[in-house]
Amino acid sequence: SDESGKGDFFGPLVVAAVLINKDIAKKFFNFGVKDSKVLAPKSILELAKKIEALAPLHAVLALKPEAYNLRYEQMKTQGKNLNDLLAAGHVAALSKVLQANSSCHFALVDRFSQSNNIAAQLHSNFPQLTVQQQPRAEEDLAVAAASILARAKFVQIMAELSTLAGMELPKGGGANATACAQTILAARGETFLNQLVKKHFANYKSLVL
Predict the structure, then answer these.
(1) Which residues of the chain have pLDDT under 70?
(2) Integer Cα distance of 53 and 47 in angstroms
(3) DSSP code for 106
(4) What letter does residue 197 receive in the DSSP assignment?
(5) Which of 20, 70, 155, 197 has a 20 to 30 A CA-CA distance from 62?
(6) CB–CB of 204/69 below 8 Å?
């Protein structure tokens, strides 16, 4: 499993999980599946279609900004943070795939924090599962495929939100993202902006409301 959008001020948070075997892995390798961060957007969308066709056991879960902001606030009141929200996403995506194939006993997660409860949550429903988390896990073909599916969904939703906003929304969390948000805020108001951005980012706190 892997995620996309956690560092982007605009747009959703997406988590994807992909189940593969050796035969699928060979096919992935042959048509160039690799970490989505080194692929062009067009390649990501093309590869996503091939991955979905070759690996039918996959799950892609997206939290658009409004739902993301609501969920984040709910977790904050419980003393939880972004890592807990990410962990919940990975558990949900992996569980959906694992429920479809009970013979799978290994899960590899692209590690995003030193400690989380992903393994404990998964073990409650899948006690025989070995859960491994490692940095740069996209070097593994299954995680690389998950990164592509997650990014493809992120790109798709960003296009929808850009259409809604009437302008191309910037990716990332830099000064250009803050400036774009300020422009939208001035033109359309806070309620509209909240459909597009993750409110807990420092970018949001720097806006002149």
Answers:
(1) none
(2) 10
(3) E
(4) B
(5) 20
(6) no
Tens-digit pLDDT profile for residues 119-156: 999 999 999 999 999 988 888 999 999 999 999 999 99
Amino acid at 50: K
Tokens of 134: 């490692």
Return the pLDDT at 63: 98
Task: Tell me if 193 sits within 8 A of 185, measured CB to CB.
Answer: yes
pLDDT tens sequence across 86-100? 999 999 999 999 999
pLDDT for the residue 40: 87
Is residue 130 helix, strand or coil? strand
Judging by DSSP bridges, how do beta strands 106-110 and 130-134 pair with one another?
parallel
Q: What tokens appear for 101 in the block?
A: 């194939």
Cβ atoms within 10 Å, residue 3: 23
d(CA 26, CA 33): 10
Q: What is the largest CA-CA distance in the chain?
A: 54
By the 8 A CB rule, do 130 and 155 touch? no
Whole-angstrom distance, CA of residue 25 vs CA of residue 29: 6
The pLDDT score that the predictor gives to residue 171 is: 96
